[in-house]
Specification:
Number of strands: 6
Structural class: alpha+beta
Helix content: 40-55%
Radius of gyration: 21 Å
Strand content: 5-15%
Number of helices: 14
Strand order of the largest sheet: 2-1-6-5-4-3
Order of helices and strands: HHHHHHHHHHHHHEEHEEEE
Length: 338
């Protein structure tokens, strides 16, 4: 496999305890390691913690790195094992569609559920470079459908699939990472592929977005934002597929089908919430908007498209998501809190 090579002098200094040299050595790999941790754990915040833990383990263990594998492979070994420990301790994350049936009418007064560890959004700015020997491109590998499907896999299958399909590791290299046999890795891959294939659409969002083109995509996103800000139910409906869904973790209730989504939209966000302001962003390789309600950070909403319509709206409620997108968590500049 190709590798990002550390300068030998910096690596030697890092082995001897030079923390600045260590940061130079691992710096070029931080983004891709962070994205790997997110795919494994389904949460930017968990990925932050896992990466910090993994790099601490790497710092403490660097003196024992013998160079039999590349530094990149060794760091992925440390990060993957750290994430597997986290998966075992915390379990999987989910979206509302994974937890219960949809609601046919708007649920007024819906309250967050803290009994479920919810999937979170991922800012595209965190993504590392693509690997030429990987099956999935970087943005495809953080699309909501793919990351949600990964959460249905046991930790070992999740790790094997990501290392092989996304990162381009061989079965033999994965066996070394996971301290198992190549036969076990191939078996895990076979099972993981079957589960993911059943849950992920045949057409990725990247394929859909390329076919749409930038101009049409901007029109869809701006149309969604404008409809919300104007309270325009009809304008919103024209953008949606017949089988559209709308989910809002950590709220447990979700809506499926144009009638249910229209009822919810008309009775809650378009009429009774307050004043909306939307900032276009990208999350999970998909179009998204950062939503401010009465000038305060409210949700990162990720849009999943089918052809030229919105097929899924996933609103991740909570100010805690905004920092990763480098957005303010209170009022927007110039809005004066209004």
């Amino acid at each position: 496999m190709s590798d990002t090579r550390a300068e030998p002098a910096d690596l030697a200094r890092a082995r001897n305890g030079d923390d600045e040299a260590f940061n130079r050595v691992v710096g070029p790999l931080r983004r891709e390691l962070h994205a790997h941790c997110y795919r494994m754990l389904g949460s930017t915040h968990d990925a932050d913690d896992a990466l910090q833990d993994a790099l601490l383990r790497a710092w403490r263990g660097l003196a024992g790195f013998e160079g039999r594998s590349s530094l990149r492979s060794w760091l992925y070994t440390v990060a993957t094992r750290t994430c597997l420990d986290a998966v075992e301790a915390r379990g999987r994350r989910a979206l509302p569609v994974d937890v219960g049936p949809s609601s046919s009418r708007a649920v007024l007064g819906d309250v967050p559920s803290h009994e479920v560890a919810w999937l979170g959004p991922y800012p595209d700015g965190q993504l590392g470079r693509a690997r030429p020997d990987a099956r999935y491109e970087q943005r495809e590998a953080v699309e909501l459908a793919f990351v949600a499907a990964l959460q249905h896999l046991p930790g070992n299958q999740r790790a094997a699939l990501l290392l092989f399909e996304v990162l381009g590791f061989s079965a033999a290299e994965i066996a070394e990472v996971m301290a198992t046999s190549a036969a076990s890795v191939n078996s895990a891959l076979q099972r993981a592929r079957a589960i993911v294939a059943a849950k992920v659409p045949a057409r990725s969002q990247q394929q859909t977005l390329r076919k749409l083109g930038d101009a049409r995509l901007r029109k869809i996103v701006s149309g969604y934002s404008a409809a919300l800000e104007r309270g325009d139910v009809d304008g919103l409906v024209t953008l949606l597929t017949e089988d559209v869904t709308w989910a809002m973790p950590p709220l447990p209730h979700w809506y499926e089908g144009l009638a249910a989504v229209t009822d919810f939209a008309a009775r809650v966000p378009l009429s009774s919430c307050g004043s909306w302001h939307n900032v276009p962003v990208t999350a999970n390789g998909q179009p998204a908007v950062a939503q401010y309600l009465d000038g305060r950070a409210w949700a990162i909403t990720v849009l999943t498209l089918r052809d030229d319509r919105i097929a899924e709206i996933t609103s991740f409620l909570g100010t805690e998501h905004f920092a990763a997108f480098e957005l303010p968590a209170a009022t927007l500049p110039g809005q004066d809190g209004a």
